[in-house]
Amino acid sequence: MGRYPFKLVTFDVNGTLLKPKGAIGQTYAQFARRRGLSVDPQILDGGFRVAYKSMSRNHPNFGQAGLQWKCWWQAVVRETFKSAIGLADEKKLSQIDVVTDDLIKHFSTGESWEIENGALEVLERLKNNSVGLGVVSNTDPRLHGILDDLRMAKYFVFVLTSYEAKVAKPDVQIFLHARDAYSRISGTGPECESILHVGNSYDLDYLGAKRAGWQGILVNCKDPVTDPGCLSFGNLKDLDDHFVKLGCD
């Protein structure tokens, strides 16, 4: 076994370890058809982006401080469909409520998510090298059930969602909460410089981790990167190869 420099490695989830199965618009349209609604998937895609951005701005962190996560997502889904069918058809609007509940249940299970290529291999390698693993993700509490369904929860010492932490990346506090959670469960408190966070967002993951005194690495990142010292890999297989070079057998 090589001498690996990190005691704890945390991962972002959406876009890093997991991705939704299919485009959001396609999934929404599919569930709408089951309830007798025909909606253009491309319009739903655009409507979702607008609704998600608006709700995130007006009710941050999935409505944690007020709406609560389920009502937050209900509002996002309803606004997404309203952008596609308009506001005049009362019958369709009532059908949307049923579709909304269907979609919230669907995205609460592992069935709606796909494990990124190389994710299990990199987790296995780190775990086999006695590296502590955790999750730090801007999402709601459904993540716990999703990881259970996908049989991935076994890899992690802790899973911390922004909703439960009451603070979201890139705020330094969520990274401090993560370190505290690991220390409390494992009985050891790693130094900040021996903690690595892996994610796909330059601002949320890399810069957030660096401000907390941690190390950061990007995977599948589409953002412009301005720090010349930032390591960024196109996929998890390349990240796994990097860990091997660092001493992970």
Automatic annotation (TrEMBL):
GO terms for cellular component: nucleus. InterPro entries: HAD-like_hydrolase_domain, HAD-like_sf, HAD-SF_hydro_IA, HAD-SF_hydro_IA_REG-2-like, HAD-SF_hydro_IA_REG-2-like_cap, HAD_sf. It holds the Pfam family Hydrolase. It comes from the Eukaryota. This is Haloacid dehalogenase-like hydrolase domain-containing protein 3. It comes from Nesidiocoris tenuis.
